[in-house]
């Protein structure tokens, strides 16, 4: 049985607000126990699915990062990121981050930690481990997954009374401030398919779902090559995105269906002219073989294709001409959003 949670929102500068938002109640963040507790270290763990955007429009004119974001549509996938957070009291704020075992300079993760520590008035040492099936920099929502997972786990450790939407808003703010995403986090709080109808952080923005076949297979292929930061800060790319994005998001709002999503995603990717040569060739070959529920991933040197179980091998075979086998993923739509693991 799916429960729904209704919020009514009155926005204040300091986030302490009542929210208006409708989404499936898919987690138990506020009542779950810490994964581990001893005298010196607190540990919590969260899972967040990857997210694919097919079409979007940028809203980032506000000076307040919580009001920035995007409208558009996409879906969450079963592959994702498990984030483990370990916290100790410390004389100063210190953050260490590993991604699949490798220490990295993770600005988004560090920003989430700083924002939450400041909100809770704490100086702490935080060790963050992201174990992820999502490659970075290909448009599969890895940055948003890491940010939201960090926020969920750390927020639970620091203050169990923080509302889920407030916790998630720190992840959204970190993404916006670092120019790594605008709409992934709010979508990753929900799961499934989504149309983002009002831009902003999770306690401000709004989204609705649209129906999909729960048995559909998703095949993804992607590699680094198209930088989100560069696209989001390039005036000409922004102009093209917003010009066609406005038209297509309006069309989706009038008919929020799976078929309309595919149609608008394909039209959007054609119009914004950001396809790499292999994305263009791969999508052409997929279409020639009847695999028309496919499009470019926003934003990446990447594609997605919906197919049934009998079409998976043909889809993989086509995509393997353009991407290496480790860059191809067979997955499905993840119906639940980010949540604590217990």
Account of the protein in words:
The chain is α+β, with helices and mostly antiparallel strands. It folds into two domains: 4-210, Ribosomal Protein S5, domain 2 (2-Layer Sandwich); 217-332, 2-Layer Sandwich (Alpha-Beta Plaits). 32% of the residues lie in helices and 31% in strands. It is built from nine helices and 15 strands. The protein has helices spanning 107-120, 142-158, 164-177, 184-188, 228-233, 235-254, 258-272, 277-288, 312-319; strands spanning 4-10, 18-24, 36-37, 42-59, 69-89, 94-99, 102-104, 124-132, 193-198, 206-208, 217-223, 294-296, 301-307, 328-332, 339-340. Helix 1 (107-120) packs parallel to helix 2 (142-158), helix 2 crosses helix 3 and helix 6 (235-254) packs antiparallel against helix 7 (258-272). It is globular. The model is unreliable at 1-33 (pLDDT under 50).
How would you briefly describe this protein structure?
This protein has helices spanning 107-120, 142-158, 164-177, 184-188, 228-233, 235-254, 258-272, 277-288, 312-319; strands at residues 4-10, 18-24, 36-37, 42-59, 69-89, 94-99, 102-104, 124-132, 193-198, 206-208, 217-223, 294-296, 301-307, 328-332, 339-340.
């Amino acid at each position: 049985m799916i429960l729904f949670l209704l919020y009514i929102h009155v926005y204040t500068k300091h986030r302490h607000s009542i929210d208006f938002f409708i989404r499936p109640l898919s987690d138990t963040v506020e009542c779950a126990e810490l994964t581990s507790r001893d005298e010196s270290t607190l540990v919590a763990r969260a899972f967040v699915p990857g997210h694919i955007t097919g079409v979007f429009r940028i809203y980032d004119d506000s000076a307040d990062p919580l009001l920035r974001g995007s409208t558009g549509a996409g879906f969450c996938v079963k592959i994702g990121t498990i984030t483990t957070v370990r916290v100790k009291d410390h004389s100063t704020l210190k953050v260490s981050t590993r991604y699949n075992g490798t220490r990295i300079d993770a600005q988004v993760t560090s920003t989430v930690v700083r924002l939450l520590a400041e909100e809770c008035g704490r100086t702490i040492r935080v060790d963050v481990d992201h174990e992820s099936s999502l490659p970075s920099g290909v448009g599969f929502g890895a940055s948003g997954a890491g940010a939201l997972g960090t926020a969920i786990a750390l927020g639970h450790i620091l203050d169990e009374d923080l509302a889920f939407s407030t916790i998630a808003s720190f992840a959204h703010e970190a993404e916006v401030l670092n120019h790594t995403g605008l709409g992934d986090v709010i979508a990753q709080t929900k799961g499934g398919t989504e149309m983002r109808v009002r831009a902003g952080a999770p306690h401000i923005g709004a989204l609705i779902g649209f129906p999909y076949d729960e048995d559909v297979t998703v095949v993804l292929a992607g590699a680094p090559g198209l930088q989100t930061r560069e696209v989001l800060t390039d005036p000409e790319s922004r102009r093209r995105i917003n010009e066609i994005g406005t038209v297509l998001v309006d069309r989706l709002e009038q008919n929020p269906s799976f078929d309309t999503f595919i149609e608008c995603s394909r039209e959007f990717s054609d119009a914004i002219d950001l396809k790499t040569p292999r994305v263009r060739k791969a999508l052409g070959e997929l279409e020639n073989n009847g695999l028309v529920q496919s499009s470019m991933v926003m934003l990446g040197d990447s594609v997605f294709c919906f197919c049934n179980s009998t079409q998976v091998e043909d889809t993989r075979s086509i995509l393997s001409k353009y991407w290496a086998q480790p860059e191809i993923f067979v997955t499905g739509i993840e119906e639940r959003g980010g949540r604590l693991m217990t």
